[in-house]
Amino acid sequence: MVNEKQQTLTELTTKIEEYFKNLSYSTAKMRIFRNGWKLLNEFMLKHSIKFYEPMVGDAFITSILGTGSYEELCRREKDTIRSANVLSEYQTTGVTKFRSVSKSYEFNGEIGKLILDFLVYRKSQEVSEDTLANNRLYLHRFLDYLNVNKVLCVSDLDSQHILGFVNGLGFYSKATIHCMLCSLRTFLRYLYDNRYLEIDFSYLVPKSSYRKESNLPTTYTKDEVERLISAVDRSSPKGKRDVAMILLAARLGLRASDICRLKFENIHWETNSLILVQKKTREKIELPLLVEIGNAIIDYLRYGRPESDLPYIFIRAWQPYDRLEEPTLHSIVSFYLKQAGISNISEKKHGPHALRHSLAGFLLEKKTPLPVISEVLGHTNTESTKTYLRIDLESLRQCSLEVSPINSPHFREVV
Fold first, then answer.
1. Distance CA 29, CA 389 (A)
2. Do 229 and 200 share a structural domain?
3. What pTM did the predictor assign?
4. CATH number of the domain residue 8 falls in
């Protein structure tokens, strides 16, 4: 079912409430949905949006997710996303699934197939997984827009459809608009270069002047990091695993993706070193296997790790004994930060990457040269490392200039 006429949020929620009533949804469940719809209504009012459509729901969900991941959200935020998803699903199909947490992306029809071909082409260019995921997400929104406007064949695509989609992006964040425009422009150019379109419509897609603002890296003090490590109960198998993983992040600055993918072959006991190819940069890195870390890993392997033929060192503590995923490690670090009683963690990032940032801060305090820090953190160049200079407050203080007194000749009255 695709609605022929536009619907306000009130009209849509009235219909879906009746639908849920027939399914015998509980009062508590309905209260959760209504709370989510209330926030959605505030979002629409803020952006002067009169009618609801799936694209509005996507923008609302994006505003909740920010730059984080779904797994990092609290229960209330996940429920809010669910409340938007059921609206979009009901409006589009006339029904809802009982357990639909994340939206699946189906690329149907001629244009959907061309998008899939484009994604294969992008992958052949060795673009990053994040870029590929962005292309998939944003072009799916473009496909939704075309389907709603009955544009089912690429030959039916014209400039008005491109401009209509672009003009409807105003309620997204600047960062999201920038990424959507880039994805659309690249796709349209692909269609023209491969002769699916006779006109290169990419010129219609405006270039965004958006530049990502780099946030100040979250760091913890040496005392806080030590309290975090001490908060782990090493007497249990899970604790033995957790402390080894935390030490790899805190002492060596390894990313969560590399810790979770660490294999037995990466540990070279004879040279006391760790050698691996980083998932993010695909660059090889060699780090010293510190005694503290080596002992923690041995303790886990001997007395904590379940029997498994998996090549990965760190696996789930209970069946099924699969490799740990990055969001799980994030939850582990967050849990022990709270156990350690560290204040203000709700106002800071509290995953393993914060431990990586903290290590960079400790090295800067010791006046470690940037190239050395870059090598430790596995950066491909020192430009990535320079962002940590902003957390070296002591050195920044030394760069400060004295301010002349207010009655100094430097200050002149401007008439």
1. 48
2. no
3. 0.51
4. 1.10.150
